[in-house]
Amino acid sequence: MRHLTIYLLAILVLTSCGLKQSDSSANSNRIDSLKIDKAQSNDWLTLKKYIGTFPKETDFFKNPIVTNELKRILGSDYKLYLDHVSLSGCGSMISKSNLVVGDISQLHVGGYGSIVFIDIANKRMYLFWLSSTVSEKKYKIYGDKPIPNTILQLIVDNMNEGWGHVANFIVDSDSIKIEIK
Question: How far apart are CA 87 and CA 106, in angstroms?
């Protein structure tokens, strides 16, 4: 009986040592993973992971690249834009013209829409924000100037698709023009 007790005690000690080693190994793996995540947080290529996802259902707006770029291009409008996001729905992020594109808009209110464009190759973000109804025509295009023609054309195409029955959106030099029907 004594040998059985010693034997069981030995198994218990060895098993708990093995568990501690596994915990230590798991912690090490977790730390390595955090280092990789931190390194990737500065890698614009990682933004491709959002394609096919809904930005409000992921960590998109908490991603350091996205947050830093939105703060940079929006400046003092950053907090107002986050308010817009909180009231809006969103479509699935897509890849179009070598850009990651996302529509974050309020539904059934006659406007109040935004489109995010991420140019991974050039490490730039652009944002079209219609901060009023379509008929009020209050909008801004944020990002480094001049705004690329590809971005302007995508804005016009998207807005005409959704709002073509109310207004005509046209590329106008380095901006867009809204003509109410």
Answer: 6
- What's 99's DSSP letter? E
Beta carbons of 88 and 82 less than 8 angstroms apart: no
Residues facing residue 89 across a β-bridge: 105
**Per-residue tokens: 58:** 């992921």
- Return the DSSP state at 107: S
Taking a C-beta distance cutoff of 8 angstroms, is the pair 18, 11 a contact? no
Taken in order 107, 113, 117, 123, the sign of the CA dihedral is negative
Per-residue pLDDT tens over the stretch 86-120: 999 999 999 999 999 999 998 878 899 999 999 99
Classify each residue of 108-124 as buried b or exposed e, where b means 16 or more C-beta atoms within 10 Å of its C-beta: eeebbbbbbbbbbeeeb
Distance CA 3, CA 75 (A): 75
Q: How far is residue 17's CA from residue 22's CA, in Å, rounded to a whole number?
A: 9
Host H or E run for residue 132: strand 124-133
The pTM (predicted TM-score) of the whole model is 0.76
Q: How far is it, in rounded angstroms, from Cα 13 to Cα 15?
A: 5
Span 132-166, pLDDT tens digits? 999 999 999 999 999 999 999 999 999 999 999 99
The torsion angles phi and psi of 12, rounded to 5 degrees, stand at -60, -45
